[in-house]
Amino acid sequence: MSSTNQAQKTIKALNSTHKIVHVTELATLGKLPQLREKSEAAVSYYETILKSLRWVRETMHNGKNQTATEKNVTAIAVTSERGLCGAYNSDVFSKINQLIESLGDQVTINWVVIGEQGHRYLTKLGQNITAYLQVSLENIDLETTTAITADFIDQINSQQMDALYVVFTKYFNAVHSEAMYEKIYPDIPEEEGLKPIEVDYVLDYEEDDEQVEQLLLENYLCGLLYSMFRYSVASEYCMRRIAMKQAKDNIQKQLDEAIFDARKKSLQQKTSELLDIISGAQTIRKEEE
């Protein structure tokens, strides 16, 4: 009897866990379209700013020396605040290792970390963490991103930062995300086959060329970072959904096995009871004869 009760408890617990995991999977899947929409809106914004930034750099002045040696580098590591998202964090950790190796020992890397998982990993590696944003990535809004970008602009102006890298996870669709790192300053992406800009007019404005470029650069970096944050959130939910799907399938398999074992034991018990009855009836009949 105790074996039957234990089997029933196991089945009940598995059913309950299966429902929780399934609800989590559906909730995660439901957020992906909205997160992707925000990411694409940010991409559209910074691409528009990028066109203006290219125009300023090519028509107003040559800008700063883009081939300067990188000695002080700032790198942003975007990870999750919690686990249960499959290989999301481990893929980011792999890209962190690649970035550290590619920059070499002669470069000082100042890490800005988002997510407890990344903070733990970089601390374990003994890396220099200059800022740890103890806020859920999902809660980072445009205002927060603007403040983060302003700090980077201050570092650029004070020549404390030679380059800016971001380690994040790019969201492609509900089943595909990819961890990567990108250098977003001082380089800006160039359009392939872009023709030289020719103008036959002069713009009249009060600000210096450098001030105009800096304003555009700040807005460009802000939009780019915000899109990367949104893509990382979407990727985290994507990986969590996949992890929940795998967990749900595993629980379903255990549940099926538990139900099968319970039915098998119940059938064996009934068979045993029936055999006892038959055996008892045969014994009584022999005694009567």
From TrEMBL:
The keyword Membrane applies. It holds the Pfam family ATP-synt. It comes from the Bacteria. InterPro entries: ATP_synth_F1_ATPase_gsu, ATP_synth_F1_gsu. It is a peripheral membrane protein. GO terms for molecular function: proton-transporting ATP synthase activity, rotational mechanism. GO terms for cellular component: proton-transporting ATP synthase complex. It is found in: Membrane. Keywords: ATP synthesis, CF(1), Hydrogen ion transport, Ion transport, Membrane, Transport. Produces ATP from ADP in the presence of a proton gradient across the membrane. The gamma chain is believed to be important in regulating ATPase activity and the flow of protons through the CF(0) complex. PANTHER family: ATP SYNTHASE GAMMA CHAIN, ATP SYNTHASE SUBUNIT GAMMA, MITOCHONDRIAL. Belongs to the ATPase gamma chain family. This is F0F1 ATP synthase subunit gamma. The lineage of its organism: Bacteria, Bacillati, Bacillota, Bacilli, Bacillales.
